[in-house]
Amino acid sequence: MQSLIYNAAAGNTHTNSFTANRHRQKHNRSRPLRNRAAERSLLAWAEAHKLILMKSGFAACVVFFALTATYGVIAGGHLQIIRKLVVDATNGLAVSAGFEVKTVEINGRENMKEADISAALEAGEGLSVFAFDTGRALKKIEESGWVREAMVSRVLPSRIVVDLTEREPFALWREGGKLAAIDDNGMVLGLVERAAFPTLPVLSGPGAAAPGKDIVQALNTHAELSVLVIGIERIVGRRWDLVLESGMRVKLPAVNFEEALANLGQVAAQNPGVFYEISEMDFRSPAQFTLKLKDNSPEARKEFLLRLSNTADG
User: Fold this and answer.
1) Same domain, 158 and 104
2) Containing domain of residue 302, as a range?
């Protein structure tokens, strides 16, 4: 019994060992089979998709060479050359098709020079309306002080239209031997000739443009006086001198010059001839004013004061 049990147990032990060995052998045989099956499947897939793989490879080559060429163009500085060639070719086709710029229409121009507008547009011969750069032209036109607002547009097949709204000249400013028109804020509009604006007052002196609005507006309230003034000079950035056509110089105070202008306006309205006898009137002192006659002899002073008194009584 003990031996049988032992043999049975030994048999069982042998049987279990044999079974395990068979499993290992079966597993070892199955692994190469699966690998071979996978390889056959991959080859079959590749064979079935051979055309796709070939096209993908070709596309990858094209992309690679395109990127290489692009890098070469950029690194070599040829991008602008290629771009110009494309633009020129496109422009040539448009011109051949009848879209060449032939007419430039300018609306609203009063004082801005037409030559300055033409230079800003750069619409030369052989340019198509499509190649014409409206944004660049507008930017250049708006650089002019005369222009408050502007619009540049294309009208097919061959017309460029420029619409302008100009700033109004308020006065003229003489500085450094040059004469410029300014607006009421003191902004320089452009260089001008005096003959083009004979009725505008002329300011002069460093920094005269910005504060000029106050003196010009105050002077305009005295029409009889303003027509006699040929120059308004800024003195040391603080006050104004008036120069009349008679040659008389009027020195105004730094503040509250309106009262002095009122007195001068009254004389200009009643007896403007006396201004031709005076070389200078000084209103800088608020308590009194002084004057200098061109003829400073006692007889001339006496006669002048008599006429001035009669004017005041009248």
Assistant:
1) yes
2) 211-313
